[in-house]
Amino acid sequence: MNADANGPRSVRGKSVLFCAECSFENPVSEGWLVVSDGDERTIVCPECGHVADHRTERSAPAPRAD
Questions:
Q1: What tens digit of pLDDT does each residue of 10-59 get?
Q2: What is the pLDDT of residues 32-43, one digit of tens each?
Q3: pTM over 0.90, yes/no
């Protein structure tokens, strides 16, 4: 399926996060519970408690030895 570049655009910004369990939606900076622990970050839905995202900080790539 191809998107029509001249078609109507969604009014939602790209930073909107959606809960797969209860359909809550908001920008990550507005309303979501963000829990940081060391190098881990978990985003939890404030409506139902579903974990919407869990990530660990990726370490920087090691320099190449030439």
A1: 565 568 999 999 999 999 889 999 999 889 999 999 999 999 999 987 64
A2: 999 998 899 999
A3: no
Q: Which H or E run contains 41?
A: strand 40-44
Rounded Cα–Cα distance for residues 32 and 52 (Å): 9
Give domain status of residue 11, yes or no: no
Confirm if 18 and 7 have CB atoms less than 8 A apart.
Answer: no
Domain count, the chain: 1
Residue 52 lies in a domain: yes
- Residue 55 CA to residue 66 CA, distance in Å, equals 32
Q: Is 55 within the bounds of a domain? A: yes
Identify whether 24 is part of a domain.
Answer: yes
Per the CB < 8 A criterion, the answer to whether 27 and 34 are in contact is no
Per the structure, the complete domain to which residue 45 belongs is given by 16-59
**To which residue do tokens 């078609």 refer?**
7
